[in-house]
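>> Question from a student workshop board

For tomorrow's exercise we were told to take the sequence and the ligand below, predict the bound structure, and bring the output to class. My setup keeps failing. Could a helper post the expected result so I can at least see what it should look like? The ligand is zinc ion.
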Amino acid sequence: MQISKLIVCGTLSLLLGFSATANDKFKRKIDIGQKSELSLVGCNIVVPQKTSKVAAFAAKELQNYLSKSFGTQVPIVKSPASKKVSIIVGNSTTARKYGINIATLPRDGFIIKTIGKNIIIVGKDDPKVDPVRALKNRSMWKHYYERATLFGVYDFLERFVGVRFYFPGEIGTVIPKHKTLAVPAINITDAPDYVARTYTVNEQWMKRRILPKDATRMRRFNTYRLRTSTSYIPNCHGLNARGYLKRYGKTHPEYFAMMGNGKRALSGEPTPQLCYNSGITDEIYKDAKAFLEGNSAASRGVITKWGAVWSQASATKGYYNIMPQDGMILCQCAKCKPLFAKGKKAASDAIWDFFCGIAERVKKNKIPGYITTMAYPPYERVPDRKVPDNMIVKLAVRGPWQEHSAKMQNLEDDRVKRWGEKVGGKLELWTYANKFSKLDIIGVPSFTPRCIASYYAKQKDYILGAYMESESESFYYHYLNYYVFSKTCWNTSTDIDKLLTEHYKSMYGPAAKIMQDIFESFEKKWTGKIFGVPYNSPMGPKTAPASDYQIWTQIYSPAALKKLDNDFKQAEKITQKDALILKRIKFMRQKFLEPLQKASKKYFSLKNKISGMTFEVTPKTAENKIVIDGILNESAWAKCGKVTFVPLGKAKGKRVATTLYALKGKDKLYLAFNCSEPQMAKVIAGKRKKDDSSIWKDNSVEIFLNPSGDKKHYYHFTINSEGALSDAASLKKGSSQEENLKWDSGAEYKVAKNKTSWTLEIAIPLKSLGNEIKDQFPANFCRSRVLSDVKDYVIYYSWSPFLKKGFHDLESFGSIILNSKGTMKNLLTNSSFENDKFSGRYLGKWYGLNAKLANQSYSIDSNVSVAGARSLKLSSSGPGKAVLSQAVVGLKPNTEYMLVYYVKLDNVKPNGRYPGVCANIWDGKNHWLPKKWFSGTMPWTKQVYKFKTSAQKPGKKFQGIFRLFLSHVTGTAWFDNIKLYELKK
Ligand SMILES: [Zn+2]
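>> Workshop helper replied:
Here is what the output should look like for this input. Compare the format with yours to find the bug.
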């Protein structure tokens, strides 16, 4: 046999059961001859009688793909036929007869070997598990079992038949057709480089999103074919799973962390906060000893919600986890306080003394097994002390998506290296390639195979594997991420360029180049532009995800989406002759391009609505004096424009009213807040110094002004109900921001506290707001209602109902009109229906038809709108008409006007003599706009009309009436964003 390729490399084969150490190197052997010798077409698959259910399942998989590839059913038989090529699957007497010994194989390792006319595929399988049953089970724990024969079969199918398992199903699985196929002499012994190779899809909080039928089973199946971990090293808050508070809360309160107030943390089970310099460490040790020596949880009195059990997430055979709960309270007892007072490194070291202390006792007493914990704030720093070799550490790092940002990544990589060296490679990484928090950008693909390959491969000298936390709203965004992750973790020398080229070629044939360009552009955009725009902050280098504005106007601009659309069209055009490839391209269009188009459309429609949300600041006259005393008793406040706040987001619970008033003086902007507060006694706010950076945590209001309109530089004021103010000049960085509290506005302000409300008056000098103040600019106003007892009430309020990303979400601000001279003056009031409540047929200055209307209704609709958050809804179910009117003050005779409005119809049908929906101006005569009235069903449609008023009688003050008609019809009409203004000559 001629040896063409001999690949041997080392791996740290850490085994369950401790038969291996860091020095125990496994040698990968891939030894494949050059001459084709054994014909697979016409072969038998042999499953010997006394073999595992895993092997039987593996044989079925092999049969399925070989049969599809050859176009003829390949039989499964019980023993080899002398004249036929036989693929013998699983451990059997035949394999042993040929001297194949799997005993020394590392976990997940397998052998593929040709002997005479036989091809043997074998690995260690769990004799108790039936994969067919396991795949029906939703619990992740049921999938941690040995199935190395199955891995051998997949390797054989990939290597010799050319099958590719990108994701389950016809679209994501490539099965080349073979009329003839022969394999050379084979001698392969393979096992993964990393023992830990796990990723999570979106089975957790993103479950509500796109979840096809059968998804869980298919995803588990995917992990089988991608050969991910078959064992679990527990390492996530193990100490939560012992019931310490119930066991010792009464008898040994000193076991629990002393808080800043001198009290012990005796609530919060199952998340105990412990004192690691107390007797609890002895109990933790005894629990660890009991588990590792095979004793029951009951023998130690362990209490969990599942009873007295060692929960699988916290202890698995040979591994015992002692990681504390998140948000660790650093104990302030006499012993701990001095340790934690010496800075972050000293605090981290002190906690590692506890971890290592447990592991050292386990080792000293010759108890077999590993103690595991994460390196996680506040104990993420590499300790100076020696870490015993029976410890496995899991380090939390950002991971692959940061690959493009050398500055940030070098710091992290250095930490991985130092930890890896400290624990001799017994380090697992917890990485975050998931769309969470500000990265949860719906519709944008986080498809990033390149950086995933480079990241996990380069850590090979320091880690035993990694967990890639990887939720997203769509499995398909990450299908190749998972594939590449699994291939790299199996073999860190995987050639990613080759793998990707092959992927596009086998999936898309003649359209490979176009499709590769499309997908590579997704990765470049996600990691290079969306994941994080790097910037220097006083805290060191940071990254901020791109803002919605950047995403939809620059990164995935309408032009960029158009180009993608054309590229997909081109790919479809050149693959018309191959039905499956064409199907794949259409599938990818649906999974990748369509969500982008949908999200883009949503962004621009929302932007349209936001731009319609305006608040005209009333000019303050010289005689209208305002005394800044916090008391809103001046008549100017009663007469000026006002807006009310809405709960932020979809917050539910009891609400309170908040009203904002605004006046513009010669050189100052005057604002007043009236915050209704039925529970003034419970309000939490401190008497703080000016520019204290914690004022926002108090019961407070906030003002955001962006006078230049650049959506970058803005001013931020926070005033708590004790009258403490902070003012800052702020700068938007992607979707984050930096605040400069040194900036001083020179504002005059005062808070007044009343029985059931608190009020604020503030006068902001206009000159402090920069040189460029637009007549109309983005602004928002918010309120945080902070009380001593958290009950079912709404905490956060905002004027703009569009905020999505917290108070600093500049793109979702409304705008204030400071100076309406430059804008065209709208003659109608509340014409976006943002203010007031219907009281019978009256809505502020609007009034309904004075008639008894059994069949008509007037209401405000908060679910649909064009501008702002609300619209007007007129409905009719029978005879009659609904008419909403407003007097137009100051309409001039013989003058040209413009009317603009938006209307939407649902099932409007004639029901009388003059049926239809329209707007109307009466100025002595009627102007019907339009002349031909609307009916039927129609989405929001913009209407624009020019008209000239009639001549008026001299001497009489001229007035007109504006009306919205739902005349003699049944059905519903909505109106919004109505503007009536004079056309200047
Ligand atoms: Zn303590």
